[in-house]
Please model this.
Amino acid sequence: MLAVSVGDVALVENRRVRFRVVNPAGVQKVLDRPVGPPTEVTKDKRTHMIAIPQFSTLFDETHSGNAVGGDYQVAVYFPADLGGDTYTGVLNIKG
Model:
């Protein structure tokens, strides 16, 4: 996920955001992940990456290969002091 910081808060890196991921079978996982270092910096904004390593094993630790195909419902919640923004969307993984 890309996160763009447009405010004057430079202390975004390593802050945690909350993810809620629901797999195609309806199983939900809630996890906190850190905001990565800026990947692009301009005078008006800083772009950061937020990753879920080993996404393919998120719902099954023994799974190998690519993640199970289908639509994953994703919601991301940022802390109030970082704007309190929420993102919701669908991540479609081809099976």
